[in-house]
Amino acid sequence: MARWFSVLLPLLFCGYVRPISFTLPPNSRKCLREEIHKDVLVTGEYELSESHGQGQVRLKITDSAGHILYSKEDASKGKFAFTTEEYDMFEVCFDSKLSAGSGRVADQMVNLIMKHGVEAKNYEEIAKVEKLKPLEVELRRLEDLSESIVNDFAYMKKREEEMRDTNESTNVRVLYFSIFSMCCLMGLATWQVFYLRRFFKAKKLIE
Fold this sequence. Notes:
Residues 29-116 form the GOLD domain. The structure is a single chain. By secondary structure, the chain is of the alpha+beta class. The protein has a domain at 15-98 and 106-120: GOLD domain (Jelly Rolls, Sandwich), CATH 2.60.120.680. The protein is 43% helix and 29% strand. It has 3 helices and 8 strands, in the order αββββββββαα. It has helices spanning 2-14, 123-130, 134-202, and strands spanning 20-24, 29-36, 41-48, 56-62, 68-72, 77-83, 88-97, 108-116. The longest helix has 69 residues, at 134-202. The radius of gyration is 31 Å and the shape is elongated. Residues 1-16 have low confidence and may be disordered.
């Protein structure tokens, strides 16, 4: 029993999501970046504190290629959702624009909650559609979470194999380059010896 508890406890805590809070000064831009796997559902909730005269705050979510996945011009409170097409680095940016003629205004507080994968699934809705019991819903969540962890380990193994192949390829190239450099140095040294010998013979310094 203790063994199963030690296995399930980390899985239960993996579903815990802590909101991110930060201040957004006027006429500033703050971004958060996160790597997310392919075909993963990403959901989020955001809320900005009120600040009179602050102007508009634009929320924009893009991938590494600059494709816009979500955009809101006057973002104050809302939700967003998208599904990733490739493993990529995604950027969530809050861009504050101060209204013309505004005086001194206070910074805004931004609260952001992002979920992806198992965390983003609405298991209450799944339970209603499939008419699942509470225990069945929890087992479904643990099954999805286990599958997600297995996929993460598989991806890490794949990356490790790619890095190992890259290291081996680099080592072989460095070895060939070292041999080529030694051959060049030996050839240059031999050429210098023969050149100096001919030079000294021409000057009749040696026979």
